[in-house]
Write a structure and sequence with these properties.
The chain is built from nine helices and 22 strands. It is an alpha/beta fold. Strands 1-2-3-13-4-14-18-16-17 form a nine-stranded mixed β-sheet, with helices on both faces. It has a five-stranded mixed β-sheet with strand order 11-12-20-19-15, covered by helices on one side. A hairpin with a 5-residue loop joins strand 11 and strand 12. Helix 4 packs across helix 9. It is globular and about 75 Å long.
Length: about 450
């Protein structure tokens, strides 16, 4: 069963070389399940038991499924992110070296592990904006072949390569594109040819490198999976599957996948934008509820922030807290942090543990070593825009931000089951406490 679910995850991952492709793949899954597309520029007409989705910048998406009884409703939200560390191609894309080599001119996006990008087949994907008369249209592009590679410098020429070498992204990490003299438009010609449009039609682009290496299941007992972009597409895929299987009763189920988490989320389509607030408010007003009803709904709502977590590293167990550490294939991770880098607190932890218990899913707890700074994620950032009960969760993995990451074969299934359960219950206040009610 776990291998089957992992293969389904792999099928999804192969469709998602960039955030733009990820959102398109999610749209396809949603539409196959009967969800209707909304546009931010148009008037919304939301009905009970309706299924809808809306995108922003083609790289973030929010889908929602309204319950049948919205007299006194709440929002149940799962939030993940669509982006991963990679290299973005600059507008003037080609560099010539001694009239013999042609490189792509790139810059780093997010905090990648640089060494993992060397000596592996890469290609280019993203979106372009085409001009036809006075109309501009957006098209996804993906060069589906091994196109470029970042060659290492031989150890004989860099004796310090294995001794804490510092990589310079403008020098060491430019990919090799071709050999011989080349016109500066050769790269643009390649993109235009792949879309079957004239070069003159391309007026803008957002293009990135992606790793061509195939996902795999491995280990003595087939217990591990490895692939590109597991952070955070493993959680994004699993929470989407749970959302599609959920059964809203007195709540509005919401699935959100934001772009630009890897660069801080402070963009128009990031978790730090108004996107989530805008959608929740428009749902509420379309249902002809009062402002007072909105604040009541928000006060009882709940968000799962789902973003992968650091498993104990077999070579460096000392990098994690001695007790608050997690392992692959041993359950969903609940993240805590005294400084609120993670938004989990006692209330949200208790409620989510009850959800996982009802789903038959194990949980484990992660906290950083007290002498080490950790990363941040979606929960605390989103909560500054819409104040919700929030828990930061994820799945354990190794080699986070590598070009090829590793996780557990069981864990995708764990998150699907927990998300399905989360989207099939509602929480409500009673006698000073919080009750969990299963919907049918």
């Amino acid at each position: 069963m776990y291998e089957k679910i992992s293969r389904q995850l792999f099928t999804f991952l192969k469709k998602c070389p960039t955030a733009f492709h990820t959102i398109k793949a999610m749209e396809d899954l949603l539409e196959a399940d009967g969800f209707l597309q909304l546009r931010e520029s148009e008037t919304w007409d939301i009905r009970p038991e309706g299924k809808y989705y809306v995108t922003r910048n083609d790289s973030s998406i929010i889908a929602f499924h309204t319950g049948k009884d919205l007299t006194d409703y709440r929002f149940h939200i799962a939030a993940s992110h669509s982006d991963s560390p990679t290299f973005k191609i600059k507008e003037h894309a080609l560099l010539e070296v001694k009239h013999k080599y042609i490189q792509l001119n790139t810059e780093g996006y997010g905090g990648m592990l640089c060494a993992t990008w060397f000596d592996r087949p890469l290609s280019v994907a993203g979106r372009v904006i085409l001009k036809d008369g006075n109309q501009f249209t957006k098209k996804l592009v993906r060069i589906d072949r091994d196109l470029v590679l970042i060659p290492s410098v031989a150890i004989h020429m860099n004796r310090n390569a294995n001794d804490c070498y510092t990589y310079n992204k403008q020098v060491d990490l430019l990919p090799l594109f071709g050999q011989g003299r080349s016109e500066k438009e050769d790269f643009k010609k390649l993109i235009a040819s792949s879309l079957d449009v004239p070069e003159s039609a391309i007026y803008g682009s957002d293009l990135f490198l992606y790793n061509r290496q195939e996902p795999s299941i491995w280990g003595a007992g087939h217990e591990f999976i490895s692939a590109s972009r597991l952070d955070d597409l493993q959680c994004a895929y699993a929470s989407l599957q749970g959302f599609l299987d959920g059964r809203p009763g007195r709540q509005v189920n919401v699935f959100a996948c934001f772009d630009n988490e890897e660069t801080g989320s402070e963009t128009k389509q990031g978790a730090g934008s108004t996107f989530l607030y805008d959608v929740l408010w428009r749902i509420h007003t379309s249902l002809e509820k009062s402002p007072e009803d909105y604040f009541r709904a928000i006060s009882g709502s709940f968000m799962l922030s789902v973003d992968n977590a650091h498993a104990v590293h077999p070579n460096h167990p000392e990098k994690t807290d001695a007790e608050n550490c997690v392992y692959m294939n041993e359950g969903i991770v609940i993240k805590t942090h005294a400084g609120q880098k993670y938004a989990s607190d006692g209330v949200s932890i208790a409620l989510f543990r009850a959800v996982c218990e009802a789903a038959g899913v194990p949980v484990q707890f992660f906290a950083n070593r007290s002498d080490q700074a950790g990363g941040s994620t979606l929960g605390n950032i989103s909560s500054t825009k819409v104040s919700l009960n929030t828990i930061d969760t994820g799945l354990p993995q190794l080699a986070m931000h590598s070009a090829y990451e590793t996780a557990g074969v069981k864990d995708t299934d764990y998150m699907i089951k927990a998300a399905r359960q989360f989207f099939s219950v509602c929480f409500y206040e009673k006698d000073g406490g919080i009750c969990m009610e299963h919907t049918s």
